[in-house]
Amino acid sequence: MLQGDVGVELGRRVAVALRTALGVEITPAEALVRPSTREGVDYQCNVAMSLAKTLKKAPREVAQAVVEHLDSADLVEDPEIAGPGFVNLVLRREWLEEQAAGLLGDDRLGVATTESPRRVAIDLSSPNVAKEMHVGHLRSSIIGDAIMRLLRFAGHEVIPHNHLGDWGTPFGMLIEHLVDEGWKAGSEAHSISDLNGFYVAARKKFDADPDFVERARLRVVALQGGDEETLALWRGLVEESTRHFEKVYELLGIGLTSEDVYGESFYNPFLADTVAELEAKGLTEVSDGALCVFPPGFSNREGDRLPLIIRKTDGGYNYASTDLATIRYWIRDREVTDLLYVVGTPQSQHFTMVFAAARQAGWLTDQHAEHVGFGSILGEDGKTIRSRAGGTLKLVDLLTEAVDHAAAVIAERTDFDAAEQARLAKVVGIGAVKYADLSNDRERDYVFTWEKMLAKEGNTSVYLQYANARIRSILAKAGEVPAAGAPVTLTEPAERALVVKLLGFPAAVDAAIDAYAPHKLSNYLFETASTFTTFYDTCPILKDTTSPEARASRLVLAQLTSRVLVLGLSLLGIDAPERL
Ligand code: ARG
Fold this sequence. Notes:
Layout: H1 6-22, E1 33-35, E2 43-45, H2 47-55, H3 59-69, E3 80-82, E4 86-89, H4 93-103, E5 119-123, H5 135-153, E6 157-161, H6 170-180, H7 195-208, H8 210-224, H9 228-252, H10 268-280, E7 284-287, E8 290-293, E9 308-311, H11 319-333, E10 338-342, H12 348-360, E11 368-372, E12 377-378, H13 395-410, H14 418-438, E13 446-447, H15 450-453, H16 461-478, H17 493-502, H18 505-514, H19 518-538, H20 548-571
Parallel strand pairs: 5-6, 5-10, 10-11, 12-13
Antiparallel strand pairs: 1-2, 2-4, 3-4, 7-8, 8-9
Helix pairs in contact: 1-3, 2-3, 4-17, 6-7, 6-8, 6-9, 7-8, 10-11, 11-12, 13-14, 16-19, 16-20, 17-19, 17-20, 18-19, 19-20
Bound molecules: arginine.
Arginine (ARG) binds near residues 123 and 127.
């Protein structure tokens, strides 16, 4: 059975044909084999148009050479040339039948494991201590988790790191407020029910009371000086915040634990060396009392060079110095080949400048560093989403509301007991929030509407979950789950179309990985479920009129569709229940 994408395999064959016919070397990707939108054609090869000029030949002549030398009779019917020089490729029925039958025995549903595994450090979630996670952190967690699952499935090593905002001057104020609230260092008995409320109260005091400001200042000095009692209080605050975050991860089904926390404080011991190294390499300049790097190519509208401040006028380090130390650590000490940062697009300039400075310093060389940015979530009024009261939205509230909405729908199903209803409400509600996020191009903003997100029709997780449950129920009624090797016979166009779609799974997974774009997988899953619906409408499975041969074959297609949906959704971090 073929491992990987059919289009890539065809590209490989076209490359061989061109080498034999015309002595040109191209890669399979350069063969430009694309799924065709033309009725009755599966793939179209556009290489003749792109090569004609360099070969000084008419495109149709190049196409002719491809067609004459293409060794692919096992895979496709005799290729035909169309228009100016497109080569139309139609997959052979027997080949499709064999592939579908083979797929049944393949856990990976045709997705190959990478031949060049990488070690990827991915920065995701990264909320701030003593503040609630906001929707930006929600997106980072959901998108980051999906990318992590996709990369791991492809065979890469992925190390998540949660870059908690857990260090810096605000901690003087926060710790003093803790002390006022009666916290004792090292005591387990404390908790903060409302993180944002805590932060706001500390801030209020700080703005109103000069004595408190002085205490906060001394506290920062004590924290940075490593004072034991202060550190213990600080640790208590970090742990209490982390407990809040872990509740959200648990609810979201995101596998981030305290072991993945590499907060800003983690890099604190490396900051002085990091900055000293930049100085020693002659990359720094003092500007307005601050130590700066000026990576080439960054300027403002007036044409002035833009600084990346790495040590403030008061001698303190900052967000940028910490991120430089982060890159240096992951590349030098952890030997990663890729650094991904799943962080909102407003920070895009920060990351491009940090990457540029890290390149100048020689820390970032042939590794791949990328800011995987994302847009905001908008309310139905088109503005950044807010709570009903108008304040910033608490993430836990949003997720709880999602589960409540789903529960209201599932309550109609009296055939499930209360425990099962509760379990399904969570799977459906949380799945809907995640899917709404992942099915949109991450770089765009999207509007959050309960109605759209929980709709049973359209590109939603609910639709996919129902589609899968419907297939499971057909298989249950049939009383048999097709075993590996069960023969597939394709007579109807809708059967053929479904198999072609199912064979597109590896290409969809690859596309989602290549662009760190989970929506490319979700779009594919939606198309697959729709293609199944068309198939099921025209090709009855369990009717008396269906021949035993067709019934067996269609059960295989149903089973494969369910497996594609379940595996695909799991790569997005979404569950698909057997019954719904
Ligand atoms: N804590 C930051 C925020 O809430 C995000 C950190 C992103 N990661 C990083 N390495 N800078 O905006």
